[in-house]
Amino acid sequence: MKLEQKRDFFIIEEKELNFQRIYENSAPIHLEIGCGRGEFLAMKSRVDWDKNFLGIEVKPNRISSMLRKLEPVQHSNVRLLQMFVDVHSSQIIPPNSIEMIYINHPDPWPKRRHHKRRLLQDKFIDILHRILVPEGTLQIITDHKSYADWIINKFQSRTDFCSNYAGGHTKIPFEGHIVTYFEKIKRLEGNDPIFMKFKKVG
Prior knowledge:
The protein contains six helices and seven strands.
């Protein structure tokens, strides 16, 4: 099926999203921010078929890659939104509407002068807190130890999230974990993933 025939996967909206209308059901919403090659979203949505999945990605080539992996029947619970998530754009996502958020291998920007470009900044975490349902969950995976420490420190300094792990992370994969192409490559290079899970408080 040609990509132009898959436009039903797209959400094109400038006002607050109505998930009941978009998915035509009231199933919980799971959100992946930064979808990469799209294999996580394609596989996870078939495993958890009773959830609705929303993938947000800013890069057009990655959107095209995701569309190649999606089929109307098998992935009827998936929608895509092309945008950069910031304080302004995220306003179209209703508050207290997302059950689970996945962030898989965000760019670590390892040089200190580039740390301001990292995704997991306080204002971004504020956004995640606003859109998660009460006691909603945020799952983060990185293979970069310094970035994992940065993320854990960010969340430990807040009172509106709590970690599922005593040390803030684990090396044990999440239940139902999807191993992506990127993760396979990093494991072969000797960089095992670090798993973090945080629950919304308050």
